[in-house]
Amino acid sequence: MSPVTEDPQLAVVILAAGQGTRMKSRTPKVLHPIGGRPLVGHVLDTARSLAPAHTLVVVRHERDLVAAAVTELAPEAIVVDQDDIPGTGRAVQVALDRLGDFTGNVLVLSADCPLADGATLSAFVAAHRAEGAAETLMTAVVDDPTGYGRIIRGADGSVVRIVEQKDASDDERAVNEINAGMYVFRADVLRTYLPQVGTDNAQQEKYLTDVAGLLRDAGERVAASVVDDVTVTYGVNDRAQLAEVGRLLNVRTVRRWQLAGVTVQDPASTWIDVTADLAPDVTLLPNTHILRATTVASGAVIGPDTSLVDCEVGEDATVRRTDATLAVIGAAATVGPFSYLRPGTVLGARGKIGTFVETKNSTIGEASKVPHLSYIGDTTIGTGVNLGAGAITANYDDITKHRTVIGDEVHTGSHNVLVAPVRIGDGAKTGAGAVIRKDVPAGALALSVAPQRNIEGWVEKNRPGTAAADAAARARPAQKADDGSQG
Q: Which site among 224, 244, 452, 482 is 20 to 30 Å from 163 CA-CA?
């Protein structure tokens, strides 16, 4: 895909200075995540898709946290500090000061409105330019306008002013066309009229919305662009809205992958982060979460009941009822059900991690199997290996983690404990119940067998009066009869 040509006549200002008290959170509102990115990250991504000449983010509340996140997500963005004068008008004014003699159009976005997509905003800017307006504001018609600024139009249908909820009269509150909080201005208009905006309102803030009334009074053209899809205007002010916006974003993301050739059996229970990447012919079964930078290759089947975080899944692999983080799963490999893959797990092509297996910081070679009831930590396993049920690589000695190395074509018996550091040579075998503390040479059979010893009558003597002792006493005559008949 060819890079988008920079638009030298467009600057984007993102407002991220608010406290977001209704979130009731130690985390700044704009840093709450949905779809694998914080709210402000989605807005930055959309701004980048427009290829503006300048992107500025205005910060204030929890300034250092927000600024650090912005710099990480969009190094090209300029962080601007809002001073003690509150309000969106002041936020845009300090951003405008950083733009110097910029003479193009300024698109103003809110960092808590993550659903505004690039196509919508590109059309919005184009409409502003076509109208030749001093200001164009995005509006939406909603059933319940509570909490939003109302669009007050004149008899001719033109925009007269915008009234905030707390400053609106009863008649104005009945208006259901709302301000979506996104605007395009000519830069020269902002320089002229922002200094005239006062703080004579219920919030004692410098409202950006007041510019529209000043422009109207000066005979300048104020246009409004009504969006067809009201969801692009949705903002986040509390946890309930965060969940709803996250759900809507996920609906979009799932549908995008379906149209790209991914089978999603139950979209309602499937979550895909915007940062994930899926190939055509991937199948996602119910209650599957594909999170962060996870990539899934063609033909893979994921789920049901699976969560993959920052994982890489190869072609035709199958992953069922599994929790995996920072793991690599090779082509045609199988994982699950009920597997736990911790960071550093690498499963080779045609390999298997089976039922109730936990792995960590381990490489399992091509066509090697850890079928069930095992813990494999800090281990390197070669090709064609089969570990018996209940295999444990004991990697920790209370002070230091040690590594286990298992060669090619090794087969171990059930219930083995390999006490690291230890090396099992190519083609070696181990007996059932073995505790391996020493290196095993290639082709050797390792056993740790002690003769079985039965202490007759131990339960009746040491656990008198218990149900076990009573059962043993009842069985004693029959046992003696059996022993006699065999003698």
A: 244
